[in-house]
Amino acid sequence: MRIILDAGHGGISPFNNEYVTAGKRSPVREDGTQFYEGVNNRILVDRIYDALKANGFDVVKLVDTWKDAPLSERVAKANQLHKEKKSYLISIHSDAFGNGLEWTSPKGVTVFTSKGETKSDYLAKWFRQELACNFDGITTDRGIKEANFYILRNTACPAVLLELGFHTNKQELTLMETEVWREAVVKSIVDACSIIELQY
Ligand SMILES: [Zn+2]
């Protein structure tokens, strides 16, 4: 099977050096900087992509640009890829809570699937298992949750959306930018993909 990696939101414009997506960022840190979710999603997707490639998986990046590709465009591209070869999609995100201006306490990693019994439930089970295991002692396992997300609802292939930590939690955000955290993300995904490859 082919694995499609989706980095949520946009990156930094090479023209003006600014983050192109509204919201989707942390509160302002003491040093005046902010964490940009779309930038971090790209860092993670690049690392996951390299690790999956090194392990022999057929993997593609859905978005390989700083631009914030519209969801309809992302879905159309994923559906085309799935038509060419049986695929599943992993959408990479980080979570937020509160008004975006103040730090809040929710933390942890969550696996999202579409509502009801779906073709993606088997994927969610393995991603949850590996995230829970690799993030044990690092952050909270928030389990599998169902949501009506456009990218999950409209893709023809099985799809999960991973919320990898809360960038609105000050302590968690510090962890999210460490090697330990990023390695735990990569390992969880490579391990889950390895199980899925063997089982289905
Ligand atoms: Zn997001």
Describe this protein with a few key phrases.
200 residues, alpha/beta, six-stranded mixed sheet, 6 helices, 6 strands, 19% strand, globular, binds zinc ion
What are the SSEs and their pairings?
Layout: E1 2-7, H1 37-54, E2 58-61, H2 71-84, E3 87-95, E4 109-113, H3 121-134, E5 141-146, H4 150-154, E6 159-166, H5 170-176, H6 179-199
Parallel strand pairs: 1-2, 1-3, 3-6, 4-5
Antiparallel strand pairs: 4-6
Zinc ion binds next to loops.
Estimated radius of gyration: 16 Å
Bound molecules: zinc ion
Mean of residue pLDDT? 97
Assembly of the depicted chains: single chain
Strand order of the largest sheet: 2-1-3-6-4-5
Which spans of ≥5 residues are poorly predicted at pLDDT below 50? Answer: none
Query: Hey, roughly how much beta strand do the residues contain?
Result: 15-25%
Number of strands: 6
Largest sheet: 6 strands, mixed
Question: Helices and strands, in N-to-C order?
Answer: EHEHEEHEHEHH
Helix content: 25-40%
| Distinct helical segment count | 6
What is the first-to-last residue Cα distance?
A: 9 Å
Structural class: alpha/beta
Shape: globular
